[in-house]
Amino acid sequence: MQQVLGVRPIQDCFLRKNYVFAMEWQQGFLFGRVVRRRICQWKPWPVIDTDGTAIDIASNAAQGSLRFNDPRNVRNDLLYLSSTVSGGWPWFYHGSFGIKPGAVNMYLQFPETVTIDGKFPNIDPLNPATGPDAGFINSLNSPYECPTDFREFVIPPRLRIGAQYFNKEGSVTGETRRSHQPVVNILFCLYHFQVLKPPVHSDLIRSIATRRQEAGWFTVGQGAELPLEMGSDLIEDWLGKQPELLMTLDEASELGVS
Asked: How many domains does the chain have?
């Protein structure tokens, strides 16, 4: 089923050093090249509350929004980058989550303050408290042992991701009713990268935009709707106050063409 859907293990989507990419923002595409990367995994990560206690979700019941905090020190959000750059390079997270047991659905929120979409653009926002049958990941589409790009996330600095949960067991009349403590495999790659800029990189940017150069393609946001807007802090620290570096694909395809 995963092959038919085109769903891949998330580690197969990670970029290697010196690999190029296009990152879609609301204002346009940013083109970059990976300088360094670090695989970041927390497995098993028990779903914990704000006190660091592992939650136990009753049958046919929900758990409200929680961050992916360090169980040893819940003040630390594992997937939050507080600075726009590190070691002089822009940086961001890219990855996904695997979850078990199979009865628990995870409804991811990115940024954590937005409503949860159902991936279908013409349906109402989802309410995870009711356990809707859309907009979730579970052990079938993103297994605990092998997180997939069924829901793939690009997390830039100063944005947080959260999740809500629903235990589907007991939702069918006559079904066994059991509580569950969900466990997550958090698997992300942390990239430090170089922003590609014309005229120095015009040929390379044009090759990426026209698909002549193999590259990674990212969207910042939930993906189904308009991408997130790049904030003024990233425009200043990533782009050197040059918002024109965010281009349409047509603009990028015409760089260096006389």
From this structure: 1
